[in-house]
Amino acid sequence: MTRLVLKMAARNVLEHRRKSVTVGVIVAAAACLFTLGFSVLDTASEGIRKEFRNRITGDLYVTAKTPKPLSAFSWKDMNSLTEPVPRLEGHAKIKSYVEGLAGVESATSRAVGVVQVTSEGGTGKPGAAMLMGVDTNDYEKAFPDGIRVAGGASWTKGSGGLIVSDMAAGTVGREASKPGSSLTLSSMGMGSAIREAEVLGVLEPEDSNPLLSLLSYVDIDTLRHLLGYYLEDGGETGGTPGAKVAPAAAPNEDDLFSVDTVTVGDPAGGSGGDVAKLLSGLADREPPKIDTDAWQYIVVKVKKGASVDGVRATIEGFIKARGLDATVYGWLDGAGQIASTVLSIKDIFNYIAALIALVALLIIMNALVISVTERTAEIGTMRAIGGTRNFVKELIVTETVLLSSVAGVAGMALGAAGVWLTRLIGFRTDNFIFKILFGGEVFRPDLSLPGCAITLAAVVAIGVVASLYPTKIALRVSPSVAMQRD
Amino acid sequence: MTEGSAIVSLDSVKKTYMLGTTEVHAVAGVSFSLARGDFVSIAGPSGSGKTTILNMIGCIDTPSAGEVRIDGTITSGLSDDEITGLRSRTLGFIFQSFNLIPVLSVRENVEFPLLLGKGKVSKEQEEWMDRLIEEVGLTDRREHRPYELSGGQRQRVAIARALATNPRIILADEPTANLDSKTGEAIIELMRRINREFGTTFIFSTHDPKIVAEADHVIRLKDGLVAENTLARRANGGGEAAK
Ligand SMILES: Nc1ncnc2c1ncn2[C@@H]1O[C@H](COP(=O)(O)OP(=O)(O)O)[C@@H](O)[C@H]1O
Ligand SMILES: [Mg+2]
């Protein structure tokens, strides 16, 4: 492209004002919208990814292979929430392998079970809790932001105890579930086991993340009791497949849990005394030994800069090579519906953006065709006095790309200003859907640099593509039109 | 005048247009030769084929039959790029409607054909341009845009532009038709002066008898045929029929 072409293109842009304004406004509006849209959605989706990654799902998690997919704390299918999550066989092997990988920041084991929470002599109703069993020694090292205690405290080194969700605390009763008090946990689903646990703390309400609001946390051994993760012969530890013993709280559970005393959804009705009896009865017996390698999940955080997909492939390779019955999931699988919704909103926006780009393209093309038609004599003259076809082509493409990129950059600047302003003021919302999407009541978008890059590329591409057809028309202009003006 | 010395020659040139199903014989078999350095007028009423002939000489249009030679080269069969090259090296154009490029100034319009060829203008070309602009009397308007100029001034820019590449032939299709007669005469005078000074062959069409009278060589057309082919020597006041 010569200086001549650039000069003429620039002047044409300035002087064909109607065309330039039409095209410019459309391109600028599209670029502004793209910049805003990409920024809002990228911020929202990145916020959601970080929230889930940092607080619960990690980047990857390993579970047993199941016919239905598992989320990071249950089944992906919300209707199956109460079905027990199977144990991860070969946990120790996988974990030590994963921990040894260069790209891995942390590998954390977990198990989860749905339990009923009741309070002895409490006034509230029995609540259900999704109980996350963790190694209290190091869980918070790997997930420092995972557990947000509003009242009370988290575990002290190696201690046991329950950190109850705000939701369960509300159901059971605030008084009954305040730190220091004791709650009764009983397993739901097949068979029953029962456990007393001291409340250490109550979690913050999770308004902007309904999934997290389901979770309560407990030391893993308490959960293992509730899930019946005992060693068969009471001796060895280690994940022998046989260790998955049927619910084992008591030799004769039918006698111990007469159906009307402890059942799901039962109002607080007088279970307390029975439970106490039951517990004292159990104390007389030789307690079965807990299987300390019984876990359901290994949650993996990948180091910053390392490739999540790479780590995932490595782990999958290991599982396959060892013939282990395990699956690796990504954070999005673990995050449930909300995160996928945000990502599908992103997809929808991408489609809308593509549609807008297409419409803009057509309008611009039309404006260019008109402009070329109006300038047939000029084009013919240039051809007659020595302008090659290539020169005409360059001139028209340069003109359009120049216009669309200048307008595009202006639109992007406007969009960026909008992002900056929204960031400054903060977009406040009471709407719960927006709260979920934006991860809180106040949303402050970041300018999406990939979004800007895409926008710029789109704008240039629109310019080039939109000028193809008008260029073709211009190239058909014969030099003779310069002559025939009489 | 022999075939060899002719800068332009037409041999049995025909041009037929299809208007729907009817054939229009815009040029119905025309032969003539033009000598280097001549000031040639293609005369004739409207519709007689003047523009068509100029277009064929200018390689803007191709004959349906016959041959056009420019400086010995037969133009039919040249590629688009060869033709563009020939046009920019050998031919200059002046149009009835001036056809300046609106976004370029006087100087830039004159410079335009030079930049098309090379992309850059040499020192000598700069001086040549300055001389041309002076020659057409627009030195004080060199930075003006076409819309700031009168019709006569615009046509003078067009003349300077046509001369920029120093072509051997300048084709002008009714260069005075959009000008009042006084301005038109001044334009023809300017063309004449340049023809004498630089030896450029001028071929211009017109239906204005006053302007025809200025020419050395008149080719008068009627219904696509040559009705008269006269070499006029104003110096000796007479005229002779061309071969
Ligand atoms: N592109 C064309 N299609 C059809 N007929 C044409 C075309 N160009 C010129 N003609 C016809 O050819 C004849 C000669 O036209 P032209 O060379 O323009 O004459 P002049 O320039 O002497 O007025 C006219 O009858 C005109 O209508
Ligand atoms: Mg004509």
Strand content of chain B: 25-35%
Beta-strand content estimate of chain A: 5-15%
Which fold name fills CATH's third level, the topology of chain B? Rossmann fold
Number of helices of chain B: 7
Taken from the alpha-carbon principal axes, the silhouette of chain B is globular
Computed over alpha carbons, the radius of gyration of chain B is: 18 Å
Helix content of chain A: 40-55%
DSSP strand tally of chain B: 11
Overall mean pLDDT of chain B stands at 89
Distance between the termini of chain A: 35 Å
Radius of gyration of chain A: 32 Å
The share of residues in helices of chain B is: 25-40%
Question: What would the average pLDDT of chain A be, to the nearest integer?
Answer: 84
Q: Strand order across the biggest sheet of chain B? A: 6-7-8-3-9-10-11
Strand pairing plus helix content of chain A: what structural class? alpha+beta
The strand count of chain A comes to: 12
Quaternary structure annotation: heterodimer
Protein architecture, described:
The complex is a heterodimer of chains A (486) and B (243). Chain A has 486 residues and is α+β, with helices and mostly antiparallel strands. Chain A folds into three domains: 3-52 and 339-484, no CATH class; 66-251 and 288-324, no CATH class; 253-285, no CATH class. Chain A has 15 helices and twelve strands. In chain A, the strands form two sheets. Chain A has a six-stranded mixed β-barrel, surrounded by four helices. Chain A is elongated and about 110 Å long. The model of chain A is unreliable at 234-272 (pLDDT under 50). With 243 residues, chain B is of the alpha/beta class. Chain B has a single domain (34-60, 73-241), classed as Rossmann fold, CATH 3.40.50.300. Chain B is built from seven helices and eleven strands. Chain B has helices at 50-57, 80-90, 106-118, 123-135, 151-163, 181-198, 209-212, and strands at 6-19, 22-35, 39-43, 65-70, 73-74, 91-94, 169-173, 201-206, 217-222, 225-233, 238-241. Chain B has a seven-stranded mixed beta sheet with strand order 6-7-8-3-9-10-11, sandwiched between helices. The longest helix of chain B is centred in the C-terminal third of the chain and has 18 residues, at 181-198. The termini of chain B are close together. The relative contact order of chain B is 0.19. The mean pLDDT of chain B is 89. The chains are: A alpha+beta (486), B alpha/beta (243). The A-B interface holds A 2-4, 8, 11-12, 15, 377-378, 380-389, 391, 478-480, 482-486 and B 46, 51, 54-55, 58, 60-61, 80-81, 84, 87-88, 92-93, 95-97, 99, 101-104, 112-113, 115-117, 119, 161-162, 165, 173-174, 177. The complex binds adenosine-5'-diphosphate and magnesium ion. Magnesium ion (MG) is lined by residues 50-51, 173-174 of chain B.
